[in-house]
Design goal:
about 40% helix, four-stranded antiparallel β-sheet, about 425 residues, alpha/beta, single chain, binds pyridoxal-5'-phosphate, globular, Aspartate Aminotransferase, domain 2, seven-stranded mixed β-sheet, 15 helices, Aspartate Aminotransferase, domain 1
Length: about 425
């Protein structure tokens, strides 16, 4: 079960030079550490991914060299900070291929992006209107809509999933009706790994006159996302799952929609003119960015995107597909292990239960072996209910993981069987 770092490297599958896992692991300082005396095998990337030194350095450089508030100062440091922060916005725009930089709103993360749309766009919903989500959503893409339904009198409709964890397209289409105002679906399920056919869902929703928000939290680190090709109205994601800092994320929205939406928070930066009689609001995207933002985080996110772009998301996706296929094959050979989520189109997430052993016990034993996974409901309780399990163990892969780490996971799982035999 003990695997030394040099062995991990020796077991690397052959890769083209452009995507050399052994080399790029060196970019992530944390991967060199040990946990409980074992080399860290970090497989909790769907919760948050580790950060390359370029991201850590970009944040540190901001604080050490040009820390200042942005947009308001005329002094040199403020101008440098503003330029760096706004350059990060340009990077995000290119990364998701948004038509205009004003369509990129910086927020705290996916959760805040969805709440922004619910609070602002949601004001146009009326009693009897419908919001359609899927049965595989993260709580962040359920609860804001429930709150909106309580406020507006709208109704929440849920498209079911099949036994493999795939959205039932027939049911999704059947649930789209004349009262459907908004569809909110995840691009990739965090609990199952299923990839939804988002472009198809958007086309169906638009044919019924509904706007579409896509929760891209689990997609942007693994798939090339083109918001114009998807034609979605809103796209939300978090920096910290994309090798960037915590506390920063993005809401993409089509400019015409954002323009027509009221602000959701009031404060500095989101205004043009304030008097006690009347306040007018700033242009996009600042209308939605009240108060001092996470400046270091935004700059760090820009650095994270540069890092991922340099590797190429296609190469990252191919590598992660290889890991998923390898892990899935190993799971099939493991007695007592049942996969939860076997969609034909899947991102690098392996969710499973072990017969007779609670997921938390599995997670604890894996941790002692240095293997970090997530055990629980993954903020997707309805998914657990759908599959009749209280919790699953989830191993989720990132660009720096290796087949040897998958072997370490299964070696530790063998230990679980010994302990509970
Ligand atoms: C699919 C999905 N949506 C939304 C979120 C919420 O992201 P955050 O906590 O960064 O706002 C997560 C986080 O795990 C997620 O996996």
């Amino acid at each position: 079960m003990k695997i030394a770092s040099n062995e991990l490297q020796a077991l690397q599958p052959a890769r083209p030079l452009a995507f050399d896992v052994g080399r790029l692991r060196g970019d992530f300082p944390i991967l060199a550490r040990r946990v409980h005396g074992q080399p860290l095998v970090y497989l909790d990337n769907a919760a948050t991914s580790q950060k390359p030194r370029a991201v850590v350095d970009a944040e540190a450089r901001y604080y050490a060299e040009y820390n200042a508030n942005i947009h308001r100062g005329l002094h040199c440091l403020s101008e440098e900070a503003t330029a760096a922060y706004e350059a990060a916005r340009d990077r995000v725009q290119r990364f998701v291929n948004a038509a205009r930089r004003e369509e990129i709103v910086f927020v705290r993360g996916t959760t805040e992006a969805i709440n922004l749309v619910a609070a602002s766009y949601g004001q146009r919903l009326r009693p009897g209107d419908e919001i359609l989500i899927s049965a595989m959503e993260h709580h962040s893409n359920i609860v804001p809509w429930q709150l909106l339904c309580e406020r507006s009198g709208a109704r929440l409709c849920v498209a079911p999933i099949d036994d493999a964890g795939q959205l039932r397209l027939d049911e999704f289409e059947r649930l789209l009706g004349p009262r459907t105002r908004l569809v909110a679906v995840t691009h990739v399920s965090n609990a199952l790994g299923s990839i939804n056919p988002v472009a198809e869902l958007v086309a169906l929703a638009h044919a019924h006159g509904a706007a579409v928000l896509v929760d891209g939290a689990q997609a942007v680190p693994h798939l090339k996302v083109d918001v114009q090709a998807l034609d979605c109205d809103f796209y939300a994601f978090s920096g910290h799952k994309l090798y960037g800092p915590t506390g920063v994320g993005v809401l993409y929205g089509k400019a015409a929609l954002l323009d027509a939406m009221p602000p959701w928070q009031g404060g500095g930066d989101m205004i043009r003119q304030v008097s006690f009689a009347r306040t007018t609001y700033n242009d996009l995207p600042y209308k939605f960015e009240a108060g001092t933002p996470n400046i270091a985080g935004g700059i760090g996110l820009g650095a994270a995107i540069d890092y991922v772009d340099a590797l190429g998301l296609d190469a990252v996706a191919a590598h992660e597909r290889d890991l998923l296929a390898y892990a899935t094959a190993r799971a099939a050979d493991t007695p007592g292990l049942r996969l939860i989520g076997t969609a034909a189109a899947k991102a690098g997430i392996l969710s499973f239960v072990v017969d007779g052993v609670h997921a938390h016990d599995v997670g604890t034993i894996l941790d002692r072996a240095g293997v970090a996974v997530r055990s629980g409901h993954h903020c997707a309780m309805p998914v657990m209910e759908r599959f009749g399990v209280p919790a699953t163990v989830r191993a989720s892969f990132a660009l720096y993981n290796t087949r040897a780490e998958v072997d370490a996971l299964f070696a530790a799982l063998a230990r679980v069987r010994e302990v509970f035999a």
